[in-house]
Amino acid sequence: xxxxxxxxxxxxxxxxxxxxxxxxxxxxxxxxxxxxxxxxxxxxxxxxxxxxxxxxxxxxxxxxxxxxxxxxxxxxxxxxxxxxxxxxxxxxxxxxxxxxxxxxxxxxxxxxxxxxxxxxxxxxxxxxxxxxxxxxxx
Amino acid sequence: xxxxxxxxxxxxxxxxxxxxxxxxxxxxxxxxxxxxxxxxxxxxxxxxxxxxxxxxxxxxxxxxxxxxxxxxxxxxxxxxxxxxxxxxxxxxxxxxxxxxxxxxxxxxxxxxxxxxxxxxxxxxxxxxxxxxxxxxxxxxxxxxxxxxxxxxxxxxxxxxxxxxxxxxxxxxxxxxxxxxxxxxxxxxxxxxxxxxxxxxxx
Lengths: 138, 202
Known about the structure:
Radius of gyration of chain A: 16 Å
Strand content of chain A: over 45%
Number of helices of chain A: 0
Number of domains of chain A: 1
Number of domains of chain B: 2
Shape of chain B: flat
Helix content of chain A: under 10%
Structural class of chain A: mainly beta
Number of strands of chain A: 10
Distance between the termini of chain A: 33 Å
Number of helices of chain B: 2
Largest interface: A-B, 28 and 27 residues
CATH topology of chain A: Immunoglobulin-like
CATH class of the largest domain in chain B: Mainly Beta
CATH topology of the largest domain in chain B: Immunoglobulin-like
Oligomer: heterodimer
Order of helices and strands of chain A: EEEEEEEEEE
């Protein structure tokens, strides 16, 4: 059980089925908050923007951007807060189908020495909001 | 013809099937002949004969498809725009001159969104496809004389909430316009046209 709470908040006004929706080519911004119940020794914290396929086909992973947020550990009484911003690519759009889904994600990873990394991932939808809004592939 | 015709599809190009059938026969014929000449090994001859029959069946299927294509001729499908965007409405013009007298069933022109997923199962590599039928136009069939033609235009739309083409390792999302027609006593005629749908809204 992890003794670190990681919260990633994406700033947006658009939501679809509970997911944050961001336009292709737009800007993703938000805040990552790291709070430790006990002191955590880690090498660094990294925020990664990427997408992957899910479903029947062999998973395809693509990292689009990576930011090192900090180096060193996380103290108990000092929550760390990191505003972030990424320029989003124009493709691929998010998709949820019969055999294949395309899923965008933002992942914060704490690189732990001699231990399993701690990470928190949030998914979001990258696609223009359809004007009709009905019968979406999402 | 605008767009990209899919030549790897058997229905579109029976040449692959004929070549495969010939190759199959080329390898199985010597085996069968050796079995017959070698002596009274009934099991071996039966097995060889079975393999030979499979080759003949593949070859026959390919030749039947080729024969259908010769009877039907080559339809021309022209798109109003070779590059499409999500939400775009486009026109597909279908021009078909029949080279011979032929009787055909209903003619289907379908807009399909196809998912193709490839995965590993043990040592086998498997591929599955799923077609989403987005829209379909049906034209009546009938008996067509040599030289008669069909000239129709149909309107389609890539849905505004649809997806663009995607081709990454072992995962493909593609748009197709598929022309289908049945010919009595022959395999169906199928022509596929891949559409280029960009990740942009119309």
